[in-house]
């Protein structure tokens, strides 16, 4: 859950998740729609699917693996997670390499390569492995990560407080503030999009992404104008922003009044009762759109969201 997500945002989800799935057996047996509903709002939903796939592999194995290669082989587990778990839980000598560690090692060795380049990362991983205290890998890994988070910080490294200062090549060469080398900033793209709210007799019209969708497979969405070409957007209900990597989306939510309409082929459409929205996995954009309507009491009063018969 902490991959790409802040601790403060994760805590309530974690508490609910472990209460609902207290063991890997329980997680392995969960229905996917329920699992995605429990995860909804955290984003990066492949993490939830990988977590369940890992739980099912643990059921097959009869427990959690205790060797690095077997941990690394679990679905969704990469080098960082495998090294962290194997070193901290089992005392195995594998260096953890996250963004903080990459920065520490780049300054420590005065690495001049661009930090996101594969060759640079490989050199820094090798340096981290060579630097590792194999006798106490757990304490060493946690110490280096903490050093990067609190002392060897991105913009204002506090070299005078650093226990590695006497041996740091970047400090000795006066390059600490210039390292690691980063490429130019990513261009941020801004995109305008619209979502449509269509209600009938206490139900709202949603469509479901297919199981083989590249992203958010199985999640429910509000329609967009191109999906309902005969729809005539009416009242503008509210606007909200949604950011994904280097894109900032500005969504405007409209009520809809339209003539007769048939769902496009290849998409699963459903009239979902408003009272049942919490029971299905909604995309983050759909949740934001509907949360804005709920705050305005539009569901309760019906104001601005007409009842439409298609």
List the helices and strands and how they pair.
Elements: H1 7-20, H2 24-28, H3 32-39, H4 46-61, H5 68-72, H6 79-90, H7 99-108, H8 118-131, H9 137-150, H10 169-172, E1 189-197, E2 199-200, E3 203-208, E4 220-221, E5 231-244, E6 247-258, E7 268-273, H11 284-295, H12 298-301
Parallel strand pairs: 1-6
Antiparallel strand pairs: 2-3, 3-4, 3-7, 5-6
Provide an overview of this structure.
Helix 6 crosses helix 9. The radius of gyration is 25 Å and the shape is globular. Strands 2, 3, 4 and 7 form a 4-stranded antiparallel β-sheet that branches. Strands 1-6-5 form a 3-stranded mixed β-sheet, covered by helices on one side. It starts with 6 loop residues before the first helix and ends in a 9-residue tail after the last helix. About 25% of the residues are buried. Strand 2 and strand 3 form a beta hairpin. About 40% of the residues lie in helices and about 15% in strands. The chain has about 300 residues and is of the alpha+beta class.
Strand content: 15-25%
Average pLDDT for all residues? 87
- Terminal CA distance: 41 Å
Relative helix content = 25-40%
Number of strands: 7
Task: List the total number of helices.
Answer: 12
The succession of helices and strands, N to C, reads: HHHHHHHHHHEEEEEEEHH
Key features of this structure:
single chain, about 300 residues, alpha+beta, 4-stranded antiparallel beta sheet, 3-stranded mixed beta sheet, 12 helices, 7 strands, about 40% helix, about 15% strand, disordered C terminus
